[in-house]
Amino acid sequence: MISLIIGLLAIILVGYFIIKGHNAKSLLLSIGILLLVIAAAIAPPAKNSSGLFFVDISNYIYALFEKRGGGLGMIVMVLIGFSVYMSHIGANDVIVRILYKPLRHIKSPYILLIGGFWVASFISFAIPSATALGVFLMATLFPILTRLGISAPSAAAICASTAVVNLSPTSVDVILAAEQAGDTLQHFAFQIILPMSLLTMFVIGITHFFWQRYCDRQEGLQQENTLQHIDPSNILNNNAPLYYAVLPFLPIVGLFIFDDQRLPKISLGGLLILTLILSVVIELIRKRNVKEVFAGLEQCYNGMAEAFSSVVMLIIAAGAFAEGLSRIGFTEGLINVVQNLGTAATIMMFALVIITLLVAIASGSGNAAFFAFVELAPRLATQLGINPAYLIAPMMQVSNTGRAMSPVSGVVVAVSGSAKLSPMLIVKRTSVPLLAGVGIIVIYTMLLIPLHLG
């Protein structure tokens, strides 16, 4: 019982201080170390213990740096560096221009609202940051929606809620989730996450139609035609040729081609490097300026460095926190309690989803919520004898969904500021569609993700 009490206090402290705006990396690492110190005092020493607790803790944390920084961490750094370079050369802007065009042909305002949500969700392939995507949509989609008669709160809600499911198989959280689930990236991303995301996105779009129309009628909002249309080409890199749209998707295509049947197998990191080399060669041929192209590559390197300080360190800190919970016996105690309640796997899935969702809403950070608790899932799944994906997939999805229901998240603050609306009003407009999405995520997990491997 003492292990459960200590573990619950640690989780509450993490959630509380993340909500208060404390640095999630330092917070998770500090509390993880504290838990490891407590474990050294109340738990039997590990088999490979040196006999000095501070030596064991230091060795373990350095081992995390080696494992996370050299394996998953390196993929994360290359991936983010690659994404930054795609933005620098204008490839991502070309994708945005292509996906943006279908919206011009939809005439019905509320049908356009649904279409705008779906198309903008696919733009997240090119703009993976929820805040950056929200700002872009406020400059492009928002004026069009309001000119066609959609109220400002409804249009802003669409712009704030597009990055709420994960569509990209090369996103950081999908890669981490696949690793923690003990699954291949191809299977986890395309067989589990993508179908769940598409179904959830469809339901959220339909719910937006009815909820935004209902809110408009309740609030007595009339059609507004005061804002002028802003052509997205004015804020995009127009120099990149149309075929550049293919470049960001080459690593995804490569996962299917380099499968050891058609062509020799290549890792995701290798595919990113191969695409990066190809992109540099194309840039050299197009610009014929070696100095300029090499200077552009510096953007990639800077993106990799930023990825280490922001994402990789968060993964390492979350690993220390999860290990601390495990060492004090929290996971075993939690398993025992849940098993006594019956239907342990379903209860555990609900518990992890609710914890992740609440922390994401309270903190405004999807990554902080997911990374903080994802390492618990495979440990719990192993002891329950179930498929880790049954716990991990819904956690990952609701971490993204919860972010758009948070009045303190970057995307909600940015959108509300641009629209001159209250963040709480935006949250009111996003909450019902996104809660419907959470319901679909949970139902999909229960019905379509196998509870047991094999």
Q: Can you count the helices?
A: 19
Assembly state (oligomeric): single chain
Instruction: State the end-to-end CA separation.
Output: 34 Å
Broad structural category:
mainly alpha
- The overall pLDDT average reads 81
The main sheet comes to: none
SSE string: HHHHHHHHHHHHHHHHHHH
Portion in beta strands: under 5%
State the total count of DSSP E strands: 0
Q: What proportion of the residues is helical, as a percent range?
A: over 70%
Poorly predicted residue ranges: 223-230
- Based on CA atoms alone, the radius of gyration comes out at 23 Å
The general outline is globular
Q: Can you characterise this structure?
A:
The chain has helices spanning 2-19, 24-42, 53-89, 91-100, 109-123, 130-147, 152-160, 172-181, 185-219, 250-257, 268-287, 290-327, 330-341, 344-363, 366-373, 376-384, 389-403, 410-419, 423-448. The model is unreliable at 223-230 (pLDDT under 50). Helix 4 runs antiparallel to helix 5 (109-123). 74% of the residues lie in helices and 0% in strands. The chain has 19 helices and no strands. 48% of the residues are buried. The chain starts with a helix and ends in a 6-residue tail after the last helix. It is mainly α and 454 residues long.
